[in-house]
Write a sequence for this structure.
């Protein structure tokens, strides 16, 4: 029987398999590197695209913020103008009130009664003066109370004294003005 030596053939086969294994390992490594590189490029493209969208949104938000500031400024100007218009309207409404007040004071002051001063604080009048008698003061108070311009008056001081050489009574009245309540608009 002849002897065949198979060792060189096995060695060649093992070397060939080792080369195939190393080739496959190298190809796998190259494929992995290529796969990572492609993944990195895709990720960078997605991030870049998202950054562009973010920048676009930031610029749009900045534009909207400017518009919001302009709107707030306009609303503040509108509020100021409305306040001015309200003051003007209030003055227009109150313009004839002083005329009515003086007219009501003149109509309600009876003969023999003289006003020396009056002051107005909010809607209350303080009237000081002289009357020929306490009865004239009482008549004056009744006429003030009967007027639609005034609410019931309050006598703070009434004292006897001399005025221009005559016996007279000095008085101090508080007279609230009648404030009409506004009805709500329907």
């Amino acid at each position: 029987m002849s002897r065949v030596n198979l060792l060189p053939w096995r060695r060649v086969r093992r070397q060939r398999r080792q080369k195939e294994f190393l080739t496959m390992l190298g190809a796998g490594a190259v494929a992995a590197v290529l796969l990572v590189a492609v993944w990195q490029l895709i990720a960078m493209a997605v991030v870049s695209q998202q950054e562009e969208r973010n920048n676009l949104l930031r610029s749009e938000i900045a534009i909207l913020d400017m518009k919001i500031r302009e709107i707030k400024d306009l609303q503040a100007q509108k509020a100021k103008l409305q306040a001015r218009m309200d003051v003007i309207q209030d003055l227009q409404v109150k313009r004839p009130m002083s005329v009515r007040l003086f007219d009501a004071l003149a109509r309600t002051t009876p003969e023999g009664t003289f006003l020396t001063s009056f002051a107005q604080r909010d809607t209350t009048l303080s009237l000081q003066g002289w009357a020929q008698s306490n009865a004239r003061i009482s008549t004056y108070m009744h006429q003030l109370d009967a007027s639609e311009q005034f609410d019931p008056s309050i006598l703070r001081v009434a004292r006897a004294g001399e005025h221009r050489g005559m016996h007279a009574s000095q008085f101090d009245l508080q007279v609230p003005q009648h404030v009409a309540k506004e009805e709500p608009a329907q």
Remarks:
- Residues 17 and 23 are 10 Å apart (CA to CA).
